[in-house]
Structure formats: structure tokens, C-alpha cells
Amino acid sequence: MKESYLTKAFQKTVCERFPEREAVLNSAFEKRLSELRSEHAGASKERLRHLESQIMPGIAIYETLQTVMPKDEALNAVHGYVEERAYRLKKTFLRLMRIPGLYKKVPGIFAKQTPKFFGNSAGFEANEIRTTGGVWRIDMTRCSYHDECVRYGCPELCRCFCDSDDITYDELHPNLVWHRTKTLGRGDDRCDFCMKVMK
Q1: Which entry of 13, 20, 21, 165 is 20 to 30 Å from 90 by CA?
Q2: Closest to 79 (Cα-Cα) out of 158, 186, 193, 171
Q3: What's the order of all strands across the beta sheet hosting 125-130?
Q4: Residue 122 CB burial class (10 angstroms; 0-12, 13-18, ≥19)
Q5: How far is CA 114 from CA 71, 118, 131, 139, in A?
Q6: Can you give the pTM of this predicted structure?
Q7: Per-residue pLDDT of the chain (199 residues; tens, 9 = 90+)
Q8: What is the Cα–Cα distance from 107 to 62, expressed in whole angstroms?
């Protein structure tokens, strides 16, 4: 199982800020992550991709950090880990956008890949509004990230992942617009995703 970027970031924080408790905190994190894995033993392969990469490590880290720092500081720490990764992804996408004309294909790529990685089998539900003509627009009405954060009593944690989307996809190209006014993680009734090519 590939180690999550969140785990590496957490271990770095513990090593730098709490060296005298490093072993104890790492052990507590691993124990909690193991418990979460046991509770999701029957999850689909598609759902596990999200659970393993971000959701379960995020919850385990958030809970563990709260034993050595205030809740808001623990939340900011996890947000920082997610944000840092989002900026790295954005740099990659910005390099790709230098390929002439590629930006025009982005809404179509989103339309094709979203059902594959964010479909029902992964714990998501969405209503397609428009997915042709240079426009990708859907309303996500159910999200695994939101569901799991609510389930484990930390709905505020989901906003970290919502924010990462905005960091990653906003302003990728002058003729490409990322637009979203609502997210489940911020307390709304849906995530109204939109990516469109400006004519």
C-alpha cells in the first residue's frame, strides 16, 4: 500500500516539533489508521483509492495532532499539508497548459474522468448538467470525503479537500474558467462544479 503524502507530512511535523514524543505520536497515528482500515475492510477498490490516499490518513492525523495542540491548530496543520500538495499539482498542470490548444480539451477530460474516479462505486453521486461544447458542469450531491468526515465527527476537515480543488484548478489558463459557488464540505447542499472554455 503506497504511503500517503499526508503521512509523510505528519511524520515531518512530529519529528520537528515534538521530537520527545515522536515515537508515541507516530504509534498513535498508526494505531488509529489501522482501526479506520479495519472499519472500511469491505470498501470497493474505487472507494479505497480515496480512503487510503487522503481520507483515512487525514482523519487519523487530525485526531492525533489534537492530543498535542489545540483543535484549530491541528486543522490548520492538515490544511497546510493538503494545500502544499495542491500547489505542487497546480505547477504540473500549468506546465501541461503550455501545450498549444490543450486547454480546450480540459472540460472534456473532466467529463470523462469524473465518473471513473468519482462515481457511485467510489461513494460519490452527481447530476450532470452539461458535459459538452467546452463546458463541464455537474452538481455533486454526495461525496466520500464529506460523508467520512461527518461520520467521524470532523466535518470541518472536509474543507481542506474542497480548498485544494480551488487551488489546483483555478486560473490554469486565461481561456479556461474554474467556477464553484457551493461545496458539501462548506455546509452547502451540493458541490456545483464547472470548468469551461471561454469562447
Answers
A1: 13
A2: 158
A3: 125-130, 135-142, 191-197, 176-179
A4: buried
A5: 33, 5, 11, 12
A6: 0.95
A7: 689 999 999 999 999 999 999 999 999 999 999 999 999 999 999 999 999 999 999 999 999 999 999 999 999 999 999 999 999 999 999 999 999 999 999 999 999 999 999 999 999 999 999 999 999 999 999 999 999 999 999 999 999 999 999 999 999 999 999 999 999 999 999 999 999 999 7
A8: 34
Cell numbers standing for residue 64:
492525533
Q: Judge whether 64 and 21 are in contact, CB under 8 Å.
A: no
Q: Which pLDDT belongs to residue 199?
A: 77
d(CA 145, CA 151): 10
Q: For residue 63, give the amino acid letter.
A: E
- Gap between the Cα atoms of 72 and 55, Å rounded: 18
Query: How many distinct helices (H) and strands (E) make up the chain?
Result: 8, 4
DSSP alpha helix (H) spans, 51-176: 56-65, 71-96, 106-117, 144-151, 158-169
DSSP 8-state class, residue 185: G
Backbone φ, ψ for residue 128 (5° rounding):
-80, 130
